[in-house]
Each structure stands twice: as C-alpha cells, then as structure tokens.
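Tokens help. Our protein:
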Amino acid sequence: MAMVVLLLCSSCLVVEVAAAAAPDDSTAAAGNGGCPSGKGERPLWVFGDSYADTGNLGNLGRDLTHAWYYPYGLTFPRRPTGRFSDGRVLTDFLASAVGIPTPVAYKLRRRGGGGLLSRGMNFAVGGSGVLDTGYFQRNISSQIDLFQKTLRGCAPTAGVAAVVVSGNDYSAVVDKNNGTSEAAIAYIPTVMRGLREQLRRLRDDVGMGKVIVTNLHPMGCTPYFTRTLNYSGCDTVANAGADQHNAALRSVLHDLDPTNRTFLLLDLHTPFLNDNSERFPVRLRPCCETFKADGYCGQEDEGGKKLYTVCDDPERHFYWDDVHPTQAAWAAVADAFTPAIHDFLST
C-alpha cells in the first residue's frame, strides 16, 4: 500500500480548493488587534495543516469542507468550528502548554476583539503542506508570508512559532504517481529542503527565537490504513515512511541548531504509538466511521440520510475520523509533550 495516500484531510482533497486562498488579505497590524506588546503573555504563531487548523478552511459545503458540519465539534464546543476533530486540536493544546488562550485563526480575525495579536495567530489550514500540495491551499511559505504582512509595522517581539507538518506533501506526490510508496519516500529529501528553508527563514528573517517543529505520527496506524486490515493492525510501509521522514527531520534541526536553543523537535510519534489500552480501548477504529472506504465522516445522501456512524463515547477512541485524533487523544498526546515545551521555553 502506498506510504501516504492520506494525510490530513484525505477526504477533503478538492476541499481545500479555493478555501484558504480566497480570504481577504488586508493585513495591516493595526486592523488585526494591534501589535503584540512583548509583555506578559508569549504569543504563539502557528503554521501547518488540519492537525493545527482552528477555522482557516472556509466553509464550501458539506462535501468539500465537512469540518464545518455535524458531527465535528460534537464534544467541544458542541458545534462545528472548522476543527478536524470532535473538539480541540493540536493548536489548542500547544497554546495551553505555552500558557495562553488559543490564538485566533487568521480567517476569523475580524470576529475577535482588540488585542488579538497579544496571543498570536493561527495561519494553519487543512490540506496544506511544506510545498504546494495541489489543493490550492497556502503552503508553509505562503503562511509565513501572511504572518509577516500581518505584523507589518510591528517591532520584533518575543513569541513562539509552531510548525506542524503531517504528511500532505507525501499524499500529494502519491496521488500524482499512481499511489506508489516509492514516490513518496523519494520525495522526503525535497520536503526536507523546503522545510529547512522555512525554518531558517523563521529564525533568520523573521527573528523567531523559539520554534516548535512536530515530527510525523505513525501514519500507518490511522484508520485510513487500518480499515483495510479490519482495524487489527498498522500498515508497516506507511509507518516506515514516517520513520524516514523523522530521521531526516532530526538531521535538519541538528544542522540548523546544534545546541537545541532555537528549535524544539516536538515528538508526536511516540505518544501516538503508546499502547494505552486502558485510556483508549479503541485505538485503530475511528469514532466517526463511514459506510464506504471512499466516504467521509458527516457524509449524507441526497435525502439527508447519514452515511456514517458515530460512537457513543469519543473518549474511548484515539481517532475521530479516518485521519484525525479525538480531543481526548490530543489531550493524552499533550500530557506527553507539555513538559518538553516548558523546558524549552524556560531557557
């Protein structure tokens, strides 16, 4: 099986189409809540994909952008908010670890009150990658461009950047090469070159002194892959690809920052693999399960009949849909990574 025919938002491929590229790009800082003060709270600036998106993917209808429809948001805040989960996602828990409220999604910035930039902003959007994924979304480079425009006229200030890369680059290249895992694995050096440049840019051009970079989770254990194995095991080829990505990422970060003072490699892979059967008795089967392999959570037929089922208790499941964790799973992962963030920010 291909290494990554998924990743974040595998069932929203066209999805993302004009969604994030369309928003209004007027970005004068004064119109977005003023400049960060540099005092008190440390702002968090988030770049990435649907593991981190808190509302930047526009609502283009259920078929294309189902994170804006039931049952997404079922646990929190009991309504869809554009998060790819039943509740909170990675960004929410990163903000908690940093010690601030969740930063506003860029697309929703005009709905917030004054002083929004004091806690940062989230530029991550579902379907995005380090490079262009073909889904017409802002890649990491374009998200950083938008960040710089947003802070135009502001003096440099202390803050933390988080870069979340979860596999869409590999999904895109697999789609272009008839689903071959070899193509995805061969693409790792290209992704790493692009990611290295964006991390260098955040440090050297933007002036970020603290940058958190996530590694890849074990992609072969997502329900997208485990479904074909009757939810009984993980796809070893996809997991091997994630391991190769993570090894290459460690090398990139060591080259950029041998003393580990600027960059923190945030380990998502290990807590995703932890066999916590007591906390998550259902680990490989999603809470929101589609009737068909090519369906999606929240899908309905023309008459409004549900083409999916939702479990009774999302807290017993690690995965919410075919790709994304439940809020409970993100909370467990955050329990593992929060001490590392605290240590990183204390130096």
Summary: The longest strand covers residues 44-47.
